Amino acid sequence: MIDPRREAAGAFTTTVAFVTTSGKRGPNVMAAEWTFTVSRNPFLISVHLSPKDATHDAIVEKGEFGVSLVGEDQVAAMGFAGHFTHHETDKLSSELFETYPAKKIDAPMIKGCPVNLECKLVQKVLMGDHTAFVGEVVEIAIDPAKRPIAYRHGAYQLGPRIERAHGIGVAVTPRVCKPGSDIAIDGELTCLERAGRDVIVSLESGAGVKLVAGSSRTDEHGFFELKLKVPVEVSKGEYRIAARHETSEGCARLTVN
Ligand SMILES: Cc1cc2nc3c(=O)[nH]c(=O)nc-3n(C[C@H](O)[C@H](O)[C@H](O)COP(=O)(O)O)c2cc1C
């Protein structure tokens, strides 16, 4: 039988980090998929570790840890770091790992990664069956030639960037208003040539009868905005805000009450 929690958790796609420490048992590495940027300024990273992991105790002990994103050619090392535990195995003795000494913390850093971050622990929060260790990044090394993996029930290469379908997204604020109200229309044109384009925006009845219209020119990124006034004589009901450019059309729902 399908376990919906497992299915839902497995649908998240992440990077994976090597988390490195140097506790009383010596230097160690583990794999951690639950590793995230949680603040830009200060630059904070959280890693979410099971209290069963030897790395957990080493971070509590030393108050620092290394985070090195797993690159495309490091998947075997990731699996190894994520399978064995330092409670039993000295993983860094394996030639799967090449390390260099961190500059600002006492931990080995993994060579050949797209990003290496040295972190000082600033917060530790127990969350369910994992502990969130939040570290402030005190040293950054980036290798733009390396690409991080994407992880989702296994490791994948990042594919080509998704180009958005041509179209218009549009919203009206407020979405519920009285006759005679001013309404603000915000939208985005997503065709290739989207800068400096004229978009026609109209307030229409459900039957497609135009009640009021205006036009707006897109900015350099394809965004546009416009104000319209709902005519005082419109009756209560459901209306559409339709935005059109050539063959593209986008609509928003407006209720007049
Ligand atoms: C791809 C992958 C991702 C993992 N992500 C996590 C994670 O985010 N948090 C965690 O506690 N364990 C995670 N693990 C499991 C640990 O890496 C594993 O328990 C490891 O043996 C702990 O090593 P340690 O006891 O030497 O610290 C992951 C394992 C793999 C293979």
Structural class comes to mainly beta
Query: CATH class of the largest domain, anyone?
Result: Mainly Beta
Distance between the termini: 48 Å
The distinct ligands, each listed once, are: flavin mononucleotide
Fraction of residues in H or I helices: 10-25%
Reading side by side through the largest sheet, how are the strands ordered? 2-1-5-8-9-4-3
Number of strands: 19
- Helix-strand sequence: HEEEEHEHEEEEEEEEEEEEEE
Calculate Rg over CA atoms.
Answer: 27 Å
Shape verdict: elongated
Relative strand content = over 45%
**Arithmetic mean pLDDT:** 96
Overall domain count: 2
Oligomer: single chain
CATH topology of the largest domain: Pnp Oxidase, Chain A
Based on the model shown, name its key terms.
257 residues; mainly beta; Pnp Oxidase, Chain A; Immunoglobulin-like; seven-stranded antiparallel β-sheet; elongated; binds flavin mononucleotide
Describe it:
With 257 residues, the protein is mainly beta. The chain has 2 domains: 13-156, Pnp Oxidase, Chain A, CATH 2.30.110; 168-256, Immunoglobulin-like (Sandwich). The protein contains 3 helices and 19 strands. The chain has helices spanning 4-11, 54-62, 75-83; strands spanning 17-23, 26-32, 35-39, 44-49, 64-69, 99-101, 108-110, 115-127, 130-142, 150-151, 155-156, 168-173, 176-177, 182-189, 198-205, 210-217, 223-229, 237-245, 248-256. The strands form 5 sheets. A 7-stranded antiparallel β-sheet has the order 2-1-5-8-9-4-3. The protein has a 5-stranded mixed β-sheet with strand order 13-19-18-15-16, with no helix packed on it. Strand 18 and strand 19 form a beta hairpin. The longest helix is centred in the N-terminal third of the chain and has 9 residues, at 54-62. The radius of gyration is 27 Å and the shape is elongated. 31% of the residues are buried. The mean pLDDT is 96. It binds flavin mononucleotide (FMN).
